[in-house]
Design a protein that fits this description.
3 domains; two-stranded antiparallel sheet; 2% strand; 14 helices; mainly alpha; 263 residues
């Protein structure tokens, strides 16, 4: 099909399922959408003799092992099924986008109306004739239906709040490593105002703890580890004030017995 096209929705950039993919897997998913579009009205599962794992890997210009790995990720995220069919493709792509039957039907109806009314002096433009009678209404602003299970809550506002909170958390976290996995862990927690306040308060306490201050922060865990382990619920046993306490022979003075302290 020449110049074929498909609908791609703006929430692609905020949907957690997509954002949890690596950049490589995101690109491969988009390429898979293009491949599905080029198949027209025929589901991919009906062209198994030509549309199989080896052919997909070839079209994506990757080896078969890379594709099989990406395939499992996309299946686990609910973006494709086991037959490599795009989940909710038909729901999110209108029939009038790819089918010529509706266009022909619409043109015939327009001609019939003109002949019936006797208004033969007005010729519909190509754009009028090509327009399907179906009203293509996208999801209302601020709502998501990327998995085809129905619109149930204003996700973009919530996701924006979660994303903004991660920016604040990442700015405050002292160890700037493994940001992608850290944001992935943050999205999994999806903290509301209360949990966000709890996490930030725990982070402030942890930054003053003996473990995090010792050896220039050598023992500070990765943010992803800290979040996945819900370390913000730990009880902090020490503070940096203990780390700076006077020592004798490497032993904190306040931990020595009275008769061990030199006079």
């Amino acid at each position: 099909m020449d110049n074929s096209w498909f609908r791609m929705y703006a929430e692609f950039v905020t949907d957690p399922k997509v954002q949890m993919l690596s950049e490589a897997d995101q690109r491969r998913f988009i390429m898979l959408l293009c491949i599905r579009c080029s198949n027209g009205d025929t589901p991919l599962r009906e062209t198994r003799e030509t549309f199989h794992d080896e052919s997909i890997a070839f079209q994506l210009r990757i080896d078969i092992d890379q594709w099989l790995s990406t395939k499992q990720v996309l299946i686990s995220q609910g973006l494709i099924d086991n037959d490599i069919e795009i989940v909710s493709w038909n729901k999110r792509q209108y029939a009038s986008d790819t089918s010529t039957a509706r266009v022909r039907k619409h043109r015939a109806a327009k001609r019939n109306d003109i002949e019936t009314q006797g208004n033969v002096s007005v010729t519909p433009t190509d754009s009028d004739a090509d327009t399907d009678t179906e009203v293509n209404t996208p999801c209302p602003t601020g709502e998501i239906d990327i998995d085809g299970k129905g619109i149930d809550k204003p996700m973009p506002e919530k996701l924006k709040a979660v994303s903004d909170r991660f920016v604040a958390f990442w700015s405050a976290y002292p160890k700037k490593e493994n940001k992608f996995q850290s944001e992935k862990a943050w999205q999994k927690l999806s903290p509301n105002d209360g949990l966000f306040a709890k996490i930030m308060a725990a982070l402030d306490r942890s930054k003053q703890s003996d473990q995090w201050v010792r050896d220039g922060g050598k023992y500070i865990p990765l943010a992803s580890t800290w979040l996945n382990g819900r370390r913000f619920e730990d009880e902090i046993s020490g503070s940096s004030s203990a780390a700076s306490a006077p020592t004798i022979g490497g032993i904190p003075r306040h931990l020595m017995l009275a008769d061990e302290v030199p006079s």
